[in-house]
């Protein structure tokens, strides 16, 4: 069953602001570095000009000395005073485009940036010992203002004309400050939100190669901004295929992404990388198969032991699982993105096999999804509305579980006697969906809009896919039940007469053969109930 793609065509990422508006020092940890700057969700930020203190002299113009002008005094009059002279048609010569941002201030900031990067240690010993350099606090504050300003298209175009992308190539190559690299990539990411500057950055071969190499950096904020930039470019049709083809030819990109998913504990970074992978897989199924089917580097029987010069090959599925587990522990948004990616694998020939061909045959994936369904999603005490809210995640989880169960080839963990509780949980989820739909219909009837409510339910594409997945999964599980399994289900409370009748109603007429198989097995346990269930089946078309 094809997963819902409603989330895959989101609006293109928007520019983000730097988090250092008051120029605080970023808090670093040995593992993850500073938190993500600004609004980490690229779809929520807006490309408005940054809100700066109106008393600042830079980077905005227009702060006049108090002696340059004096307020006009008006004598008391019987009528309202005349409005002040209109400024329409006047321009400030040193402003950038139609903004009030100052060209001289921006020139000065970029000059200070160049001077900082060109600064050299006093002696060789200092140069050898110094592996990083703290960014000057004032310069960091000014660069964050440039980051905010770059959300404006006029400013982005001015930065392009000034040659900032080429300048940043040199800055990043020479930089010994993670924070500086992060800010530079963040500014480039904002520039990629505007067509003209995006195309120019895309055409700069030295720059795009450097950006892909930055995925190997150990600094999480830099990785976050790099991933955001790539996602932005992939979300715009004018350059999307260009970046896709580059990523396909750079095999190291897959290893870098897998390493991030496998080792990072930064929820914001994992979310952004997950969105990047989901976008790539949605755009190109061949890339998906290539990434998930096996290692990106050719291996041989006499392959050397992994070392610094010969790093271990990163497998996609185990890396995906580590990231998904981390997001679940953090309770952060973004797990639905990873689940949708996994569900996407089940509908592409060649990609699904990667799940069952993992070293444990897919058992770790099955256990993770099983536990997620049993303990996190649509719990017995939850209101029916929860099934509606969690429909995307439920659709992905049950879709993968269903596919793995149908395709089982002798794996012990997939046998029905190990998963009897799934029957009860699947029916519970379907019941919650029914209750929510009944609630919608009832509310609409009170408003006398019954026809609108029926139309609304039919238009909920995700719910329809979700119900189809549940019905198919339930039908296959019931058909797999044997006499002893049915007895165990009755003993544990997973089945009773009411639930059996409900289950048959769920799966017919689309899965009548599975229903007949279940009824046949039931006849060996309870003949009367078997006859009751048989009456629920629709009459055969070739009957008398």
From TrEMBL:
Protein name: Serum amyloid A like 1
GO biological process terms, semicolon-separated: positive regulation of synoviocyte proliferation
Keywords: Nucleus
GO cellular component, as recorded: nucleoplasm
Gene that specifies this protein: SAAL1
Region (Disordered): 1-95
InterPro entries cross-referenced by the UniProt entry: ARM-like, ARM-type_fold, Synovial_Prolif_Regulator
Compositionally biased spans, kind Polar residues: 28-57, 64-80
Phylogenetic lineage: Eukaryota, Metazoa, Chordata, Craniata, Vertebrata
SUPFAM superfamilies given in the database record: ARM repeat
Cell compartment(s), UniProt: Nucleus
Residues annotated as transmembrane: none
Chief place of localization: nucleus
Protein family (similarity comment): Belongs to the SAAL1 family.
